[in-house]
């Protein structure tokens, strides 16, 4: 059974999925969000929460409304808070100076999504309609976010979308991990492998510079495995700029391009996705009530940020009537 519980305000619900291995996935309709990923790795089968979490919708609203949430229509920053779509310029809500971040204000991560449970597949599907013109984005866009906890200990996320106008769409999930289970510890000693030859450097405004740089000889080279600590020294100007990592890597087309192992080597996380890039943010500007500085990291699979305004960054155009599908799988072993 999928257990349904209150989660703060009257509108908020929490859903708990469990598999035969004892792994648990808890979700909420507030922001179509992952709340907890719990694995029985502690002594006597005790559960370890691998994510940065809050206990209610009100707590997310008060402290940080992004963790675990579905980010739509467009993740990341859009330069000039505008983009050209099929020859027409659209202006978006400017919620950072000269930029639109994560789709603007009061967007889907702060809304209460509809939900449909499917106990037969141990999954549930959240859905929402983004209204034409909301935060400046064209099209009535129907979005679904399906989460499934598999028998082999994976969390599968599938996003779909369809619009009645040409628009742009580049979603992601903003779950934050700390595989120690303790977000008061930084993640410096997590061992990371990323199958990526290039990453995207940022400018002073945190927007991509519009170029790709080789990871060779930089703290962005995780091809053979390294710890986040190599960037936390802030010796490289790109790490110093954002106080850690807040960058996209262009993923090699391999089955599991990302792997992270906990410092105690008890938990292994691998990622598979049909998206071209992963953005890793190491909670460099924390809400201290949620986690410490560098106390968590994201693995946001998506198209390249600001692709709508950068030539050669790929297309995030969603044409009228086209069906969009994004798949990401977080696989856990312990």
Question: How would you describe what is shown here?
Answer:
By secondary structure, the protein is mainly beta. The protein has one domain: Beta-galactosidase, Chain A, domain 5. The chain has 3 helices and 29 strands. The protein has helices at 57-63, 229-232, 237-242, and strands spanning 3-7, 9-18, 24-28, 33-39, 48-49, 70-71, 77-79, 82-85, 88-91, 99-101, 114-118, 123-130, 141-149, 154-163, 167-168, 172-173, 176-177, 191-194, 196-199, 213-214, 226-227, 246-251, 258-261, 268-273, 277-281, 297-298, 300-302, 317-318, 324-333. The strands form 8 sheets. It has a 9-stranded antiparallel beta sheet with strand order 11-12-13-14-29-24-23-18-21. The protein is globular, with a radius of gyration of 19 Å. The two termini are 24 Å apart. The mean pLDDT is 98. This is Aldose 1-epimerase.
């Amino acid at each position: 059974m999928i257990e349904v519980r209150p989660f703060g305000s009257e509108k908020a619900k929490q859903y708990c999925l469990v598999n035969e291995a004892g792994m648990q996935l808890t979700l909420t309709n507030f922001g179509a969000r992952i709340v907890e990923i719990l694995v029985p790795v502690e002594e006597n089968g005790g559960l370890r929460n691998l994510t940065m979490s809050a206990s209610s919708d009100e707590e997310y609203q008060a402290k940080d409304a992004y963790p675990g949430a579905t980010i739509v229509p467009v993740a990341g920053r859009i330069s000039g808070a505008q983009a050209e779509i099929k020859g027409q310029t659209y202006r978006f809500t400017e919620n950072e100076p000269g930029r639109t971040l994560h789709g603007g204000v009061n967007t889907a991560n702060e809304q209460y999504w509809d939900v449909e449970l499917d106990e037969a597949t141990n999954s549930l599907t959240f859905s929402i309609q983004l209204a034409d013109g909301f935060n400046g984005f064209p099209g009535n866009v129907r979005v679904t976010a399906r989460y499934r906890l598999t028998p082999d200990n994976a969390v599968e996320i599938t996003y779909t979308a369809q619009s009645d106008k040409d628009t742009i769409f580049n979603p992601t999930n903003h779950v934050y991990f700390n595989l120690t289970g303790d977000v008061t510890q930084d993640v410096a000693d997590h061992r990371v492998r990323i199958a990526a030859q290039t990453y995207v450097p940022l400018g002073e405004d945190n927007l991509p510079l519009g170029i790709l740089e080789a990871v060779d000889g930089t703290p962005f080279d995780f091809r053979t495995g390294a710890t986040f600590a190599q960037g936390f020294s802030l010796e490289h100007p790109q790490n110093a700029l954002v106080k850690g990592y807040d960058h996209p890597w262009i993923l090699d087309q391999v089955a599991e391009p990302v792997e992270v192992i906990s410092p105690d080597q008890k938990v292994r996380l691998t990622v598979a996705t049909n998206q071209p890039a992963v953005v890793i943010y190491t909670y460099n500007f924390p809400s201290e009530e949620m986690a410490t500085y560098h106390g968590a990291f994201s693995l946001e699979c998506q198209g390249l940020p600001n692709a709508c305004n950068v030539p050669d960054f790929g297309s995030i155009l969603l044409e009228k009537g086209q069906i969009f599908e994004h798949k990401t799988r977080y696989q856990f072993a312990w």
